[in-house]
Amino acid sequence: MSLALFIWPVGLIVLGATVGFMVGMTGVGAGSLTTPMLIAVFSVPAPVAVGTDLLFAAVTKSTAAWRYQKHRFIDWSVLRWLAAGSLPGALLTLAWLKWAHPDTTLVAAGIRKLLGVILIFSAVANAAFPLLMRWRADTDLEQVPTARHGATLGLGLLLGVMVVLTSVGAGAIGVAALMLLYPALNVRRLIGTDVVHAIPLALVAGLGHLALGSIDLKVLGLLLLGSVPGIALGTRVAGGAPDWAVRWALAAVLLAAAYFLLMK
Questions:
Q1: Contact, 34 vs 45, CB < 8 A?
Q2: For residue 139, what pLDDT is reported?
């Protein structure tokens, strides 16, 4: 029993460090690992895993925000339209969880299935990232990006609902969708916009889950304890490994997590 009590917190710290390292390396997508790992490996109830991961994501992504702002890699116009859809979408979904009193067993099972499906899309988005980059290289990046306010608002609404229910969606999926909506926008600005947009969304959704009681503060603390040095190390060594190798490895892990969640 004492060994299990030792392994559990150490494992959470290692998970936080691993996710932090991959976030520092790839910028987006690696956060998708946290919730399925909490559910599958550490037996954290699905709603609690989602809520805890949201606050974890809000803190970890905040560490990168200042770098994007410093280098002007944020498109505030796109970000405002995303947030105009995602924040109300998150609040409405939280209100539904609060007032509809859905069956927690059914909600947990639904989260597992929905998370599995979204992880597949996230894995595909990560693996397809270089192909999207190659496609973008053939576009005229000097043209003024076309404003697609309605589509951006709709994307934000969808991300808000997905993030509250699964904690996944605002990373790789968000970037891939923004690339398709704004092919003329510099890719670093797309990634920076997506990362910064995820911070208030994850914070609002995470605080909502905290109010609902679906946060494990001990798990959150252990994850953050590992993520801080993990992000620092990942940022320092970013570029040392081929980007395609990191992305394909991440995609494989996401697919494995999706298979486990959907088949169990």
A1: no
A2: 55
pLDDT tens by residue, 82-97: 999 999 999 999 999 9
Helix (H, G, I), strand (E, B) or coil at 44: coil
State percent of the chain over pLDDT 90.
31
- The tokens describing 225, both together, are 């304890």
Cα–Cα dist 20/224, whole Å: 9
Q: What is the pLDDT of residue 201?
A: 94
Give the model's pLDDT for residue 41. Answer: 86
The C-alpha atoms of residue 118 and residue 123 are separated, in whole angstroms, by 9
- The pTM score is 0.82
Beta strands in the chain (DSSP E): none
Instruction: Kindly report the length of the chain.
Output: 264
Total tally of structural domains belonging to the chain: 1
Write out the two tokens for 188: 């670093």
Per-position DSSP letters for 11-33, written without gaps between them: HHHHHHHHHHHHHHHHSSSGGGG
* Closest listed residue to residue 172, CA positions, set 33, 64, 74, 20: 33
CA distances from 54 to 78, 131, 149 (A): 22, 29, 26
Distance CA 218, CA 42 (A): 13
| 245 burial type by CB count under 10 A (0-12 exposed, 13-18 middle, 19+ buried) | exposed
* Packing angle, helices 172-181 and 104-137, rounded to 10: 50
* Coil vs helix vs strand at 67: helix
Q: What is the distance between the terminal CA atoms of the chain, rounded to a whole angstrom? A: 26
Q: Are 186 and 116 spatial neighbours (Cβ–Cβ below 8 Å)?
A: no
The answer to whether 89 and 153 are in contact (CB under 8 A) is: no
Whether residue 75 has pLDDT greater than 60: yes
